[in-house]
């Protein structure tokens, strides 16, 4: 699978595993786009998580995700597995969160490609009709 190859290239296979706990969560309703009648609203979750390294030292990290993420509905005290960098225990990785961010990026690229395709089609149409 491509994700495992990417994780190996990034060195995540050498990171230590830890049980992370959600320390706090906040759900925020945000308005996206212009202040028009047809505004789009999205739901976001801002979470603070905590884990201990191999020496028992506590570390914290934060992340923001949309309601499409598997981590979105996690509540205080819920736990999940993460990987952290033993050389820098404040750096952590969670595959689900990465895949969520990658999905957002892929949608943005697809939207840009569609927009560029439409602009190209309009320009081509104008040039084709102008030459007649």
Strand order of the largest sheet: 3-2-1-4-5
Quick check: average pLDDT?
75
From the alpha-carbon coordinates, what is the Rg to the nearest angstrom? 21 Å
How many domains?
1
What characterizes the major β-sheet? 5 strands, antiparallel
According to DSSP, the number of beta strands is 5
The best one-word shape is: elongated
The number of distinct helices, counting runs of at least 4 residues, comes to 2
Specify the helix fraction band: 25-40%
Order of helices and strands: HEEEEEH
**What is the straight-line distance between the termini?**
52 Å
Approximately what portion of the residues adopt beta-strand conformation?
Answer: 35-45%
Give start-end ranges of low-pLDDT stretches.
27-41
Structural class: alpha+beta
Looking at this protein, list some descriptive labels.
single chain, 132 residues, alpha+beta, 2 helices, 5 strands, 39% strand, elongated
Quick structural summary:
The chain is of the alpha+beta class. It is 34% helix and 39% strand.
Any overview of this molecule?
The chain has 132 residues and is an alpha+beta fold. The chain has one domain (2-130). The protein has two helices and five strands, in the order αβββββα. It has helices at 2-10, 95-130; strands at residues 16-32, 40-52, 58-66, 79-85, 88-93. Strands 3-2-1-4-5 form a five-stranded antiparallel β-sheet. β1 and β2 form a beta hairpin. It starts with a helix and ends with a helix.
Set down the secondary structure blueprint.
Elements: H1 2-10, E1 16-32, E2 40-52, E3 58-66, E4 79-85, E5 88-93, H2 95-130
Antiparallel strand pairs: 1-2, 1-4, 2-3, 4-5
């Amino acid at each position: 699978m491509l994700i495992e190859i990417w994780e190996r290239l990034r060195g995540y296979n050498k990171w230590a595993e830890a049980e992370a706990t959600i320390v706090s969560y906040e759900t925020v309703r945000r308005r996206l786009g212009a202040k028009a009648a047809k505004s789009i609203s999205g739901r976001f979750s801002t979470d603070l998580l905590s884990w201990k390294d191999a020496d028992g030292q506590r570390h914290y990290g934060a992340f923001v995700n949309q309601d499409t993420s598997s981590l979105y509905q996690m509540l205080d005290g819920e736990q999940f597995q993460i990987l952290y960098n033993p050389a820098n225990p404040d750096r952590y990785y969670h595959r689900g969160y990465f895949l969520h961010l990658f999905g957002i990026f892929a949608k943005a690229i697809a939207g840009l490609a569609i927009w560029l395709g439409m602009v190209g089609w309009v320009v081509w149409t104008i040039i084709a009709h102008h030459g007649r």
